[in-house]
Amino acid sequence: MRQLFVTKSLDQILGDAEKPEFRLERSLGVVQLTLLGIGAIIGAGIFATIGTAAAGDAYRPGAGPALILSFVITAVVCGFTALCYAELAAMVPISGSAYTYSYATLGELAAWIIGWDLIIEYAVGNIAVAISWANYFKTFVAGFGIRVPDWASMDYRTAARAIDAATGETVLQSAPHLFGVPIIFNVLAVGIVAALTVLLVWGVKESARFNAVMVVIKIVVLIFFVVVGLYWVEPKNWTPFAPNGWAGISAGAAIVFFAYIGFDAVSTVAEETRDPQKNLPRGIVLSLVVCTVFYIAVALVFTGLISFDDLRQSLASEQAEPLTMALERASGGTMGFAVGIVALGAVVAQTAVLLVFQLGQPRILFSMARDGLLPSFIGRVHPKRRTPHVATILTGIFVATFAGIASVDEMVDLTNIGTLFAFILVCVGLMILRVRDPDRPRPFRVPGGWTWAAGLFVLFAVLIGFAPLPVWGKGVVLAAGALGFAWFRAQIMPILGVLSCLYLIYYLPPTSWLRFAAWLNFGLLIYAAHGSVSSRLTGRAAAASPAAHDRDTATHAAWLYLLGTGLLLATRAFDLALEAYKESGDFAAGVLAAVDGGRWLRPSAFLLTPALLSAGVLVPVVVRRLRRAHVSLAVPLLTPSFVVPMLVVVGLASLTLVYAAAVLLHSLG
What we know:
The chain is built from 26 helices and two strands. It has 669 residues and is an all-alpha fold. Strands 1-2 form a two-stranded antiparallel ribbon. A hairpin with a 2-residue loop joins strand 1 and strand 2. Helix 9 crosses helix 15 and helix 18 packs antiparallel against helix 19. The longest helix has 39 residues, at 546-584. The model has no long low-confidence stretch (mean pLDDT 82).
């Protein structure tokens, strides 16, 4: 199993990046990097999620006016991680972001997992942003009398529910049909992704200039919202300040985390940055600070424009555009021009997010392909433009395809948990690298020591003072905290980064955990079937004995199959337990639900689909590799190294098929 945790040395990572066939153009400075960070951060989060964060939903209490504190908490969480990113980016100025850092610290398997996980943050997150962009753009052009047909701007599920105002039928019924099949396709979402893909293939310098223009526009629009909104603010709307207490503030922080996603995108253009050791840390930290100031100001004005009760009642139908809704409600509909300007800002803001995320994702794929974990053609660089054009085009096709047919439902929570998981690995990776390679020059270093530990402990003590704990409980927590802050003072920032990310994950809906487990299971499947064989570091071509490599990777595939299946079952059990607990309010009922056979027989696509896919792919992969190793090594088949992996994959596949059949029969019955 040691092969799965082999790390790639920093010298080797830096050397690969300097090879002519992989070299990218270095043209970005600190200003462009900061603007790229702002372009990625200020987008759908501030223009869409703050309504849900303030009012709450069926699963989480709302923060109310205390949304300001939610933004502060999330900024602190991201601040810990941003500092870790800054130290790693300055030390390893290579495209690939957290994927590259994990390869150098945690090993190949962890690097693959984090690279696969980052697809959720960038590509899957961008699908949601593209769909949201299409909605805003449709509303914006409607103000000029241009009506985009509903069938050309939504997905099938939404079209089946939405009513066409002109015909009184559902959009699915009124849409044009081809051979009896309704044509439903989000042309707007596909169009914007296609246009930005062309721009990104053209060149990173041109893309950065375009992003800078959009960043200026959306900052001006947010300032406009704050200035105009201040006139209509009613201080009484800030009372009660925290209607749902600390639970509402924490849930709000977990939701608005989506508004902060993007500062790490700065690290993905490390190989296209001038003097990256200095400029990358500055760009990461500056973009986060600027956006936090804007977010707090916008949250203050937003919660002052509309009361908590009105927000809860109106959010169901106006959730997508909370800022324009607040202006309309506060002004009594007399601020039409202001609403239009804010709508324009939303379109521009989300265009910038799409651009930067479409810029970041290909560079992660490019790094993975350069390491052999993805097919080599994905790592090709355009001979003239010096951009990773193949990875950029593939990312564009992936995002555009799903943006054209998918629904935005639950994308935010899935993106949040994937990003938080990536942040955790970055913080852990930094701690490991400090132990493994303490003497490597660090142009930027995350602060620590007695002074920082004492200051952060004071902040921690203030937060505990507001926590819903008895006095003796607060005393115990503070005493344990004092010992922890003192003992881990040198690594205090990355440790707090890990703990704060886990804290926000706790407040995400449990169903998002199951979806995340399904996504990771799919990633483990691809690594076992392809990456473990083609890796430039540990693959078959680099092995001293290809036959022994076949035997070892077959064993690895079997254990990864077991790991992925266990992860799926654990998250599904947690999902069922929490569902029962919410229904009854009884903790014991929740525990019993986790082992209730009737509940397990309910079909779950996020459990069955990855389980069946793993069975269909990994069984033949393991059998083929073991047979090839048996022939080459000329050893008996009835040895543990051959029997154990075969029993694991065949046994798991058989149990999966039996379970799938039971679910099917239960559904039919």
